[in-house]
Specification:
2 domains, Rossmann fold, Hypothetical protein af1432
Length: 326
Amino acid sequence: MTSIILIVDDDPAGRQTLESILDEQGYHLEMAENGLQALEKARELLPDVILLDVMMPGMDGFEVCKKIRSDPKLAEIPIIMLTALDDRKSLLDGLEAGADDYITKPYDRYELRARLIGITRLNRYRKLLDDRSDIEQAHLQLLSAYDATIEGWSRAMDLRDKETEGHTQRVTVLSDKLARLAGIHDDELIFIRRGALLHDIGKLGVPDSILLKPEPLSTEEWAIMCKHPQYAYEMIYPIEYLRPALDIPYCHHEKWNGTGYPRGLKGKEIPLSARIFAIIDVWDALTSDRPYRPAWDKQKTMKHINDESGKHFDPYVVELFNKLIG
């Protein structure tokens, strides 16, 4: 992209001199004849660099520079001051006004070109960093929106099935703790959290007459209920962003001994996140009140989980769960 240079000088000869020095250097040159015009063009063009003469009638270069620096839209534009005033005070006044560089007349054309190349390069890098920061911020906002949507879906599931209300939030928190004990790092924990929030999303495909039935399910009804992990796969897999979180919704009903569903996976064929979640899911279900039974106490629930080690649950994960619950 061609850099825009705004040349500000009330003297036509001064503008022509700069134009001749910078001609054929690959810049797009714009001219301003006074301070007010400089501010107007700066706001209109947002140039990459401003070459600003100091000695101008009305509003001098120092004042123009200060006004540019006080305008949030213009404040980051690099300014090189150009002047015949070759003294220390003028240099300090220019830097105090906000100039990035200071060149005295008459110009050495090669020095001016070199300094301009340097300052445009730095400005380009700054813009790239700003753009990257904007992209990263937008990405974070998008991830936040996605996570809010996922939490909304999980709350919808809890509201649909009143007897498990609060279950999703509880198992999500506990799964995170057990996963950390298993050595799973932060980058992967986010997928476990999302998977836990979505673990029963497939039940949206199960009719209320089956999902909310207070009596035991018939063989046919149970066959439909057992399809909910497959429904979860079909819902989540097309969403690329959520695929890394799919293991828990798809596999948390698999069992260590291969008798689970929907695919009958066995042992370490089952993803670790699903093996972790399986224990958490059973723990929360058994320690919560249900219409058909009161909640089990901690001792009874832990005995059941340990009895299922090597059958329903991964023995290694059972050991970790014993440490977690204490």
